[in-house]
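Dear support,

I submitted the protein below through the web form. The confirmation email said the job was done, but the results page showed an empty box. After a refresh the structure appeared. I'm attaching both so you can tell me whether what I see now is the final result or a partial one.
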Amino acid sequence: MSGKLLFKGREGSLLIGLIVTMVIVSIAGAATYYLTTGSSITELFKNNNLKAYYLAESGARYAAHLVQSDLDNGTTTYINALNNKSCTLSPGQFTLTIDNTSNAAYLLLKSVGTLNSGSWFETKREVVYKLTKSFNEPFDPNTFSKNWDVISGHADAATQGGVPLSGDTGLREQAQSGSTVSVVALKWDGAGGTPNPGLPDLLSQWNLSGGLLSYALQVKTAINYQGGKGSYYMVGLSFRLNTNNNTNPDDDKLYGVSYFKSLPPSADTSQTPAWVKSSTFTPIRDGFVYAILWMHNSDGSFTLLDYSLLGFAKWHKQTTYIVGDTVIPTTPNGYYYKCTAVGSQGGKSSNNEPTWGTTVGGATSDGGGSHSITWTNMGTVDNQANSGIVTASGTLVDWSALAVQVDEKYCSNSNDTNCNNGTYRRNFITVYTASPDSSAPPAPYPRGTISWNYSSYFKSVKWSGHISGQQLASGSWSNPPAVETVLDSTFTSANFDTIKPVEIGIHGYYDSYSNNDMYFDDFALKLPSNAIAGSYMQYY
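What the results page shows now:
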């Protein structure tokens, strides 16, 4: 009896154990199903997020270069056309919105990618690009002191003071008594640790670019030649400018890109400005106009990095010439000619222009009798010569433009021209000129126009000096590229966050204590858009 009862107890225990096991297996199965389904849904949302991001990024990339072209050319064609524009791409769409009014420094380009619109699986991602605008300086008398710091000499914004201004507002510079140098510096937002809202923030640019500072500058300039002045000048843009926190220009460290002209050393007198007597300028002291790239060192010395001859005076009838004078034909033929001999009573050109020989070293006769001239073919003119920068009489055309593109990169060493990585800083420097002349190639660039479309208005400077052994970013001096970019590492943006230097300026070196005889207008600064912010993403 007791044995039977024991058996029945075991049978009940087995039944209860089986039921418990079945319940546990059922719960485990349900949990496994839930986990599997949840994992699949999680993976689905992850894939959808990625696809929505790709849609948003596609829209931003599609629009960015078109909108940037508007910003570079001062137009709104694509900005207006693409604002609130939607485009369907399988399996979703992107929608663009453009804010060009909220901030003076940059434009906001937003692209929203949408997947499975209207369903509970709908997924959105947003990508935002900040595209930098050009900072354009009209030299308004009301804002001049806010935007610019006079480092040396005197400068102001005015509508009067000389022929080149012609009633329009511009910057006029003059040196202080006893000096021939004037320098003004841009008060960028944060320069010297001082906030200046509304101006570009170079320190933020430096930080966002990994401790590198790149930008482009341009300005137009004019010289007042009245009163026999303008025999010596060096006017243009300063960059990597460090004034050592004082107003003495002698210890400034900077690069300069300038229009330069000087009489030959044989014409030096006690009145010749001291700056031009630096031996580094001797190769270009011949009375012609040059574009030059140079440095000023903290010990007060200059270093001429390179130069390019910009033009010659054209031949004139019934004009007195002396041995050494150089001309080109009134219709340029690609050659220039030097006066190598004159008659017993000096040289005077004929009433009719001679037929110019095209054999290098060959002679062309001009004038006649005791006033004869022998012109010797000296070879081909530089690429840049006679591009509308120099007048027929050999002076700088009013409101000729200079532009410089400065790209700073990390390189592996001082010989690295690819500069994909490393810790050695190098400046990639490209210089351009443009002319307001109606016949200037590739197109006239008049005062009042600001564009960053180099190919439409500018000519890249073709350097011919190579006197300091510069490297090119590509090609070689014997086989140079179409656009010549010079590399130099003397002054960089290292420690920019602690120094906060003035960095950017406009300089005028002249032949005397000038009374408002150097003029500038249409200054502009452009920061690279790919560094100012890049893109950022937002979930919906």
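Response: this is the final, complete result; the empty box was a page-load delay. The CA atoms of residues 460 and 483 lie 6 Å apart.
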